[in-house]
Amino acid sequence: QVQVAESGGGLVQPGERLTLACALSGGMFHVLTVAWYRQAPGKTREFVAISFGNHRTDYGAFAKGRFTIFRSDRDNTIYLQIDNLDPADTAVYHCAAEDPNGRQFWGQGTQVTVAT
Fold it and tell me: Exposed, middle or buried, 46 (CB in 10 Å: 0-12/13-18/19+)?
């Protein structure tokens, strides 16, 4: 059983940078595929970025350029850096881990609010 815990959200101003963390435990970190999703109020959940065990990454179309996903094997943590935050980035950001057997594990999410 993999435990997933997101952190790092909060109230930030437009134009700032924020780094979210997804701490993983209970599994073999280096074989996990981990993705970030977000869900804004009244909208469906959308894919943000993904990090594979071999460190390959991919991004949703809107996320290319301002979002960076990276992983720390030492900390068993996946990070999502968001640059030049915009009010449209306001959402609950969720982290999901998938093991080699295809089982998915989700965290509770962390709220990001971008406002002046």
Answer: middle
The length of the chain, given as a count of residues:
116
Which amino acid, residue 100? P
Contact 27, 59 (CB under 8 A): no
Tens-place pLDDT, residues 61-98: 999 999 999 999 889 999 999 999 999 999 999 999 99
Strands 67-72 and 57-59: unpaired
Tell me which DSSP letter residue 62 carries.
G
What whole-number distance in Å separates Cα of residue 69 and Cα of residue 34?
10
Which of 24, 33, 37, 26 shows the shortest CA–CA distance to 109?
37
Yes or no: say if 68 and 80 are a contact pair by the CB < 8 Å rule.
yes
Q: And the tokens for 63?
A: 């996320």
pLDDT score for 26: 86
